[in-house]
From TrEMBL:
<keyword id="KW-0812">Transmembrane</keyword>
<protein>
    <submittedName>
        <fullName>SusC/RagA family TonB-linked outer membrane protein</fullName>
    </submittedName>
</protein>
<dbReference type="InterPro" id="IPR037066">
    <property type="entry name" value="Plug_dom_sf"/>
</dbReference>
<dbReference type="InterPro" id="IPR008969">
    <property type="entry name" value="CarboxyPept-like_regulatory"/>
</dbReference>
<feature type="domain" description="TonB-dependent receptor plug">
    <location>
        <begin position="99"/>
        <end position="209"/>
    </location>
</feature>
<dbReference type="InterPro" id="IPR036942">
    <property type="entry name" value="Beta-barrel_TonB_sf"/>
</dbReference>
<dbReference type="InterPro" id="IPR023997">
    <property type="entry name" value="TonB-dep_OMP_SusC/RagA_CS"/>
</dbReference>
<keyword id="KW-0732">Signal</keyword>
<keyword id="KW-0998">Cell outer membrane</keyword>
<keyword id="KW-1134">Transmembrane beta strand</keyword>
<dbReference type="InterPro" id="IPR039426">
    <property type="entry name" value="TonB-dep_rcpt-like"/>
</dbReference>
<dbReference type="Pfam" id="PF13715">
    <property type="entry name" value="CarbopepD_reg_2"/>
</dbReference>
<keyword id="KW-0813">Transport</keyword>
<comment type="similarity">
    <text>Belongs to the TonB-dependent receptor family.</text>
</comment>
<dbReference type="InterPro" id="IPR012910">
    <property type="entry name" value="Plug_dom"/>
</dbReference>
<dbReference type="Pfam" id="PF07715">
    <property type="entry name" value="Plug"/>
</dbReference>
<keyword id="KW-0472">Membrane</keyword>
Length: 980
């Protein structure tokens, strides 16, 4: 409490209607013009005399005026303004605007998604919660980052990921990722979707922009906050292998269907001992474990009117549900703002993040293939290399735990700014200098030795670093002339990224003692190194004009020069955009229409570019090769990349029409948007005759279109004294298609690209069932037998050939949506979020399990045809999938994404506990999935044996099978507390 002199000053706490303190509220003495700001706990102190008027204000809340009557303490409750959404300040890139002034498509992620969720990456919180932003997780490996796609796919081969900016400085292209940003440090997230909003970032904004603002200090004494949670992870759905009895029956059925004589009940002699003893091994259970996750975050914030600070530290530890998988992150952040003089402000946004993914990993793919009668251990307790001896095709899925694996990254990020406000006649003019530097080292290492089935010993070490900087000079000018308002922004910036890496490897170690720590002791040595540089120079101008807060205009133009383009064309591209807005509600004819509290129409059109090509792809390069010459191994060169010095930007022209609305005093609010993107000059690889020495060359060819509809709706369903119920619904459709490829109107069958069809489709045979005993196959598929898959003879030639393939569906969802219901009863809050993705088709690797001539186990959920069950969905065990059919399946799903129950302690209770704030919560994620998909999960990718490099070296730390990590169900208990 503050010491007070009666009649000379007053103090108190500023609260919202839920009893939560409001930091940063303004208290003004109208007579003396003295101003105070509430601290992080909502407390304030201000000088006042009896009869003087005090005004309490905060953005988004209705102001309150009190006549001071010598009260020593004044606790004030502010209520949310009915037009809070319109007055909300949002980040729009190189500045902020009131929501009512925004003309482009800018969406703020709900604040409720930024806390009280057990996520390691902020994209996991956004999934399904923002219309038009499709976030997918092909794998749930601890520490992995989801993929984000804003408004669908425009380019065929270029990266489609959004550009990420943190505190005004790019995170994308620096080597780092959103894994390096602690979700607890994030204050707000805005997503820029249309050309008017993204053109300000030029080529970087071609796939949308995610703007992240981290927390900063507030005026007042230090506030210490702790946010933490701990909980458990389990696999949400296990695709269980067959039991011992089912495995034996499958083997007997296989021999019968292939006309073989059965001599033993199991395929291998090594399985007989366990079979005869009646003991089985649950290999999936052996390869998995109870997952545990915990996160602890401590922050300190506060400051004076001239110096404000926010400092935080975070520790995250996650033990995966598959043995060996883990993720550990340690993060530190320091945000500082200093008013050096009345016209100069400087500040920093510094953070350091260390990510650790170390550890050999169990192989879930092999665990599902093991015979339940396979032997896990040798007599001495070591892992048996081949559990199903003499079967040598499948190794023990736990061998990876006996390897040494190192995978670590560090992000050292230093951003600073200086802002000058000009006085006098130049009032409204500001200059800001942003400078950011990132150092991103990576280290990966592997040693595989005897215990993991490598009798020679193989070691590899990879070290890389990315150094990048960004410098931005930003000039802004704001001016009001009666009903006219002007905002002008000009930018000159430069970015550079330098990357270098070295790799060392060796094979042939005397023993496994040193391994990765002494690669030089290996018999055969390999090494390589690489270096590249990327640069971008940019100029930008943006003008915003409004008249009487009714008519809005935004004009933007950005000029980018990229180092990736060729010498025979300009490296620069210009990306203009224009947008208009009409605040219809502010018109005089709307004053008597009480049912409509907000109505704004927005229209924008603009052009963005996409570099879509890596460094040095415009120049012709050759690679070093070894070849024998006169009996000596000699290094020579061979063609590597055929450059094209005529390459230019991919260009996307975007039109957007939006309507923002609020009804019944904003009890119902939302927006409807329609957009269309037309992309031309796609950077595609054109095939060349191999006699030229090159197989392809990049060219600007091809066109696509991409359009969609988005709806966001928020409703206050019930608002009583003790009970409130709110609903938020998001819905988005998207459809892209290829309109041209190589200028000749022809499809590209090899790449599965078809003019008039979506970019990514499933092109395959149309399965109509399974051939049954006694059916006549002669007129449709003469080679088929009972138990073979039945396909449609689409061209009617009496046989199934490649000409019978057709487009079965698109891999991207036709529409996505989410619904969040939030219930409040006094201080108790319950939030239920359901997410859905519909209309996508994917080849199902879980159905293409090759029985591999009866040599492996298969999932119990996936059956097989027999003459008795006459299945119409699954083939016989004897069926050989010679056509390479991918088992296209409906991958649509609806998921109970997260449910959170929280209790916010009242101010009276907090006063007794001497705390500034206290919230406890329980949260569950991925609670249940409704889907027709048969397999682990429709959203995730499951790699089969032999894909990528895993088939060639199963025991190694390969890049594909290690991503076979299914969706996990998470339950946590959390605590958010602040100290006075």
């Amino acid at each position: 409490m503050y010491a007070q002199t009666p009649g000379s000053e007053t103090s108190g706490v500023i609260l919202d209607v839920k009893g939560q303190p409001i930091p940063g509220a303004t208290i003004k003495n109208e007579k003396t013009a003295k101003v105070a700001i509430s601290d992080g706990n909502g407390r304030y102190k201000i000088a006042a005399a009896k009869g003087e008027t005090l005004t309490y204000t905060f953005v988004g809340y209705t102001s309150k005026t009190i006549v001071f009557d010598n009260q020593n303490q004044l606790n004030i409750t502010l209520t949310e303004a009915s037009d809070k959404t319109l007055n909300e300040v949002v980040v729009v890139g190189y500045g902020t605007q009131k929501r009512s002034d925004v003309t482009g498509s800018v969406v703020s992620v709900p604040k409720s998604r930024l806390s009280q969720l057990p996520v390691t990456n902020i994209l996991q919180s956004i999934q399904g919660a923002v219309a038009g932003v499709n976030i997918t997780s092909s794998s749930s490996v601890p520490g992995s980052q989801p993929n984000a796609l804003i408004r669908g796919q425009n380019s065929i081969s270029a990266s489609a990921g959004p550009y990420v900016v943190v505190d005004g400085v790019p995170l994308t292209k620096t080597g780092g990722s959103l894994n390096d940003i602690n979700p607890n440090d994030i204050a707000s997230v805005e997503i820029l979707k249309d050309a008017s909003a993204t053109a300000i970032y030029g080529t970087n904004g071609s796939n949308g922009v995610i703007l992240i603002t981290t927390k900063r200090g507030t005026t007042g004494k230090p506030v210490i906050r702790y946010n933490g949670y701990a909980g458990i992870d389990n696999i949400a759905h296990i695709l269980e292998p067959r039991s011992g009895e089912e495995y034996v029956q499958k083997y007997a059925d296989f021999l019968k269907q292939t006309n073989q004589t059965q001599t033993r009940p199991v395929p291998n002699v090594g399985e007989l001992a366990a079979y005869n003893a009646g003991t089985t091994t649950d290999w999936v259970d052996e390869a998995t474990q109870q997952g545990v996750i915990q996160d602890h975050n401590v922050s300190v914030s506060g400051g004076t009117s001239d110096v404000k600070y926010f400092i935080s530290g975070d520790y995250l530890d996650q033990k995966g549900v598959i043995k060996g998988y883990q993720f550990n992150r340690i993060g530190l952040r320091s945000n500082l703002d200093v008013n050096v003089t009345s016209f100069l402000t400087v500040g920093t946004s510094l953070f350091l993040t260390s990510n650790n993914f170390d550890g050999g990993r169990a192989n879930l793919l092999l665990a599902t293939a093991m015979s339940p009668y396979g032997q896990e251990y040798n007599a001495n307790g070591s892992y048996k290399i081949f559990p199903m001896e003499p079967e040598l095709l499948y190794t023990n899925p736990l061998l990876g735990l006996k390897t040494t694996q190192i995978s670590r990254t560090t992000n050292v990020n230093g951003n600073g700014y200086a802002e000058i406000k000009f006085p006098g006649a130049l009032t409204g003019l500001k200059f800001r200098l942003n400078a950011g530097y990132t150092y991103f080292p990576e280290r990966r290492g592997s040693y595989v030795g005897r215990l993991a089935n490598d009798n020679n010993g193989t070691a590899s070490s990879f070290n890389a670093s990315t150094n990048s900087y960004t410098i931005e000079n930003i000039l802004t000018y704001s001016k009001d002339i009666k009903k006219h308002h002007f905002d002008f922004t000009a930018l000159y910036s430069a970015q550079e990224r330098k990357y270098n890496s070295t790799t060392a490897g060796a094979v042939g170690f005397i023993n496994d003692e040193l391994g990765l720590d002494n690669i030089g002791s290996g018999a055969t040595q390999t090494s390589s190194s690489y270096r590249d540089r990327y640069g971008l120079n940019s100029q930008m101008g943006r003008l915003f004009y409004s008249y009487d807060s009714r008519y809005l205009l935004t004009l933007t133009a950005r000029r980018d020069g990229s180092s990736v383009f060729g010498a025979n064309t300009t490296k620069y591209g210009v990306f203009p955009s224009a947008a208009i807005g009409w605040n219809i509600t502010n018109e005089s004819f709307m004053k008597d229409i009480k049912a409509i509290s907000n109505l704004k129409l927005r229209l924008s059109y603009g052009k963005t570019g996409n570099e879509a090509v890596g460094v040095y792809k415009t120049i012709t390069t050759e690679g070093a090769v070894r070849s024998p010459f006169n009996g000596i191994s000699t290094i020579g060169v061979a063609p590597n990349n055929l450059g094209n010095i005529l390459l230019q930007w991919e260009t996307t022209k975007t039109a957007n029409l939006g309507l923002d609305f609020g009804l019944l005093n904003n009890r119902i609010t939302g927006s409807i948007e329609a957009y269309q993107n037309k992309t031309s000059g796609l950077l595609l690889s054109r095939s060349l005759p191999i006699i030229t020495g090159y197989s392809n060359v990049l060219e600007n060819i091809g066109k696509t279109t991409n359009k969609g509809l988005e709806l966001t709706l928020t409703t206050q369903n019930f608002a009583g004294k003790n009970f409130r119920w709110e609903t938020m619904i998001v819905f988005a459709t998207n459809k892209n298609k290829i309109t041209d490829l190589y200028g000749d109107g022809k499809d590209d069958l090899g790449n599965r690209w078809f003019i008039g069809q979506p970019i990514n489709v499933v092109y395959d045979y149309k399965m109509t069932g399974v051939w049954q005993t006694g059916e006549d196959v002669s007129k449709q598929d003469p080679t088929a037998k009972p138990g073979s898959l039945k396909f449609a003879d689409l061209n009617g030639d009496g046989k199934i050939t490649a000409d019978d393939r057709t487009i079965l569906g698109q891999t991207a969802p036709k529409w996505t949506g989410g619904i969040t219901n939030t219930f409040h009863y006094k201080n108790l809050n319950l939030s239920v979020f359901i997410q859905t993705a519909q209309g996508m088709t994917k080849n199902n690797p879980d159905l293409t399990y090759g029985d591999e001539t009866g040599r492996r186990n298969t999932p119990a959920e996936i059956g097989y045809w027999t003459p008795e069950n006459q299945s119409q969905t699954r083939p016989a065990l004897s069926y050989n999938n010679t056509l390479g059919y991918g088992y296209a399946s409906d991958a649509s799903y609806t998921r109970i994404k997260d449910v959170t129950l929280s209790y916010v302690f009242s101010q009276n209770m907090l006063d007794k506990l001497h705390l500034g704030g206290l919230t406890i919560y329980a949260s569950g994620r991925n609670l249940h999935t409704f889907t027709n998909w048969v397999g682990w999960d429709p959203e995730q990718t499951f790699y089969t044996r032999g894909s990528g490099n895993s088939g060639a070296n199963q025991q190694a730390f390969s890049a594909d099978w290690t991503n076979n990590y299914p969706v996990t169900r998470t339950f946590v208990l959390g605590l958010n507390v602040s100290l006075r």
